[in-house]
Structures are given as C-alpha cells and as structure tokens.
Design a protein that fits this description.
By secondary structure, the protein is mainly alpha-helical. It has a two-stranded antiparallel ribbon. Strand 1 and strand 2 form a beta hairpin.
C-alpha cells in the first residue's frame, strides 16, 4: 500500500501540477508546496470519508470517474471549490484557517490553492482506482488503507518520523494521538516533504 500512497502523492505533486495550481491560484510554487504539504492529509481523509459513507459512496465514485481524465492545464476553481466543500464538509473553514497558519500563506490564497488542487486530487484518485477497480467498496478500502494509522506507522518507519501538522484548527503531532500507534499526519508530512524537495 506504500506504493499506492507514493504514486498518488507523486502524481498529484508533479512539477507541472504545482506550477499550474500556482498559476490558477495566483500563488508561487513555494506557497503551493507549503499549502499542499499541510492540507493533503485532510483532503485524503475527506476522500476516504466520502468513499466509505453510505450516502456518499456512489456519488464519490461517479466523481472519481468523471474527473479521472482531468488535466492540470484545465483547472476549474469553481468546480474545485465545490469538490473541496464535499471533501471537508463543515471543516472547510477551520482546515483552511489551520493550513494558512501552518504554512504562513494568506487564507484567501490557501482557499484558491485548495480549490485548484481538489479536481487534480480526484483525477489522480480516479486514475488510481480505475486501474484497480470501479467498485465503491474497493475504492473505500483503498483510501481507508492510505489514511489508516497502520499506514502512518509504515511511512514513519520508512521516512523516520515527521513534524507537526495542523488539521481542523488543532495541531496534531506525530505520536500524540493518545495511543501507541504512530500518527498518520506526521508520516504524511514526512513523505510530502521528501517529494517536494
């Protein structure tokens, strides 16, 4: 599953995607990298929740199929804002605020960056899941595995830990989730940091 996570993140964070997200959002590539490093774990958790929700799974699978062919050269910020609202739900504002604080990027620009990135995330997930299965249960299982705490442990082991990560207005540090399991957020930030260097 580490290969799946790596391929999803590598595809999403390609230089051309970073450049196009910056162009559409009016942000520098450095700002885009900082924002995505902070936000992607929340976006993936939102995607997992959509894929596993009884009332949202079928629609989410349709969205993945519809966006599988999207390219970074044709980003629709309006559509991206709608996708972001579905992925983050009531946590959209608090996540945006937390990412702005964590990254040091203006809140309005963070919103634009996330709106530009959201369709690309669905495109990457759509391509990945279409390669494996078009079954909503399989998609939910795949995304659940990507964001599971066990995956966080694997990534922590491979990459040597991580740093603090803000999510939904609260700072979460690796290993601080009240259990003996390693924390996904720190592991994801470690992986993203290595990809963005």
């Amino acid at each position: 599953m580490a290969d799946v996570t790596s391929s999803i993140l590598t595809a999403l964070l390609s230089q051309s995607n970073i450049k196009n997200i910056g162009k559409e959002s009016g942000a520098t590539t450095g700002e885009v990298k900082k924002v995505l490093t902070s936000a992607i774990p929340s976006l993936l958790q939102g995607a997992s929740a959509q894929a596993s929700g009884a009332s949202t799974a079928a629609g989410f699978l349709q969205a993945l199929t519809a966006h599988a062919g999207d390219s970074a050269g044709k980003i629709d910020l309006s559509d991206g804002a709608k996708i972001l609202s579905h992925l983050l739900g009531s946590k959209t504002a608090s996540t945006t605020n937390a990412v702005a604080k964590e990254s040091g990027v203006d809140k309005a620009k963070v919103g634009s960056i996330l709106a530009a990135a959201a369709p690309l995330l669905l495109s990457v997930l759509g391509q990945q899941t279409n390669a494996s299965s078009s079954n909503s249960n399989a998609v939910a299982a795949l995304l659940g595995s990507v964001v599971s705490s066990n995956m966080g442990g694997l990534l922590s082991g491979l990459l040597g830990g991580g740093s603090a990560f803000s999510q939904s207005g609260a700072t979460v540090k690796p290993g601080s989730n009240g259990s003996s399991k390693p924390d996904l957020a720190g592991a994801a930030v470690s992986l993203l940091g290595s990809l963005l260097k």
